[in-house]
Design brief:
Helices cover 34% and strands 15% of the residues. It is an alpha/beta fold and 338 residues long. β1, α1 and β2 form a beta-alpha-beta unit.
């Protein structure tokens, strides 16, 4: 499944990687990283912005991402030629309608993001009337008929792969292209720095996480919020456990960053977390997020706190997996665009 369809490329080919302007997320960083890697292997690639809301046309690149690119262009600059390639994240798949000749590719980073932007009504609910009217004029709404009009579907997670196949896309029209976490996390951790702390992202699955907190008020729960990158790193290096009961719409970065920082990782079984290929941790650390499991989850958390030195070794293979992701990404970019 990983060796799917490739592109037709020559020395004149230009690869346009489409991205929302002024948007700093794990997904948008990955789009910039793809441009960087394509240029590293000798391709002619550009980050290609589109403007939304209060986007700054004159300075569309987040400061942290400027290291990946030497310049940028906008969707209006794309040359609709058969030798060129358009890479779209799933959140703006409808933009393919502007082009007739170019080779079209969708990179599935978040299945959930596709769902909330599918069709006019979802656009209105998510982004409001101004965005609704803008995209009505642009005629770039996403709909399920778009699937069959895309030449290649890249998937960042095996959860996304199953979603794509469920829409009738043939395996030979798909390829695996995942991601990797920042090099700053690829270091050895010091177990002597660890404290009895459980960390969580309050933006993900907080309703269920709140039930866990209420069930065990004696445990020190610390949310990852309102912190700089350095503060997050420091917190992860001190915590013993990271829990994640969110939707896992793709292969999320925070669980991997936490694991590399020496945290035991406990998740639910939603989205990519249900897939061994995406989150390769022992099944005893994955739970259905239902009330009947709260006591079992709390007990697992207590075990990880009390027997940390022993249990953390059970995540060694997960850390090895994470260490290898950057070279795997580089190899896959060569296979797909080489």
């Amino acid at each position: 499944m990983e060796m799917g369809k490739k592109f037709l490329i020559n020395k004149q080919s230009v690869i346009y990687v489409v991205c929302p302007a002024n948007n700093k997320t794990g997904g948008t960083e990955l789009l910039h990283q793809l441009v960087y890697q394509l240029n590293q292997i000798g391709r002619n690639a550009f980050i290609t912005y589109y403007l939304e809301g209060n986007s700054d046309k004159n300075n569309p690149t987040p400061e942290e991402f400027k290291k990946y690119i030497n310049g940028h262009c906008f969707v209006k600059d794309v040359k609709d030629s058969e030798e060129n390639i358009l890479v779209l994240p799933e959140v703006c798949i409808g933009k393919h309608k502007k082009f007739k000749k170019i080779q079209k590719c969708v990179w599935w980073l978040s299945v959930d993001n596709y769902g909330v932007t599918l069709g006019k009504l979802n656009r209105l609910k998510r982004y409001g009337m101004k965005s609704f009217l803008k995209h009505l004029v642009l005629n770039d709404y996403s709909n399920e008929s778009d699937f069959q009009k895309i030449d290649v579907h890249l998937f960042q997670s095996y959860f996304a792969a199953d979603f794509i196949l469920s829409k009738g896309i043939k395996k030979e029209n798909t390829s695996y292209l995942s991601d990797y976490i920042n090099d700053i996390y690829i270091t050895d951790f010091d177990s002597n720095l660890k404290e009895d702390i459980v960390i969580y992202n309050p933006k993900k699955g907080y309703e269920f996480t709140q039930k866990l907190i209420e069930a065990a008020p004696d445990i020190k729960w610390v949310p990852i919020q309102n912190m700089t990158n350095l503060q997050v790193q420091d917190l992860m290096r001190r915590a013993k456990i990271y829990i994640d009961f969110g939707n896992h719409p793709g292969k999320d970065r925070i669980p991997r960053e936490a694991a590399m920082s020496g945290c035991c990782v406990i998740t639910n079984k939603r989205g990519s977390a249900a897939y061994e290929e995406d989150v390769p941790i022992d099944s005893k650390f994955k739970f259905e997020d239902v009330d009947d499991n709260i006591s079992n989850i709390i007990q697992t958390i207590r075990n990880c706190i009390e027997s940390y030195e022993k249990i953390i070794d059970e995540f060694a293979e997960y850390r090895t997996f994470i260490r290898g992701e950057k070279s795997k990404f580089q190899d896959d970019v060569k296979k797909i665009f080489g």
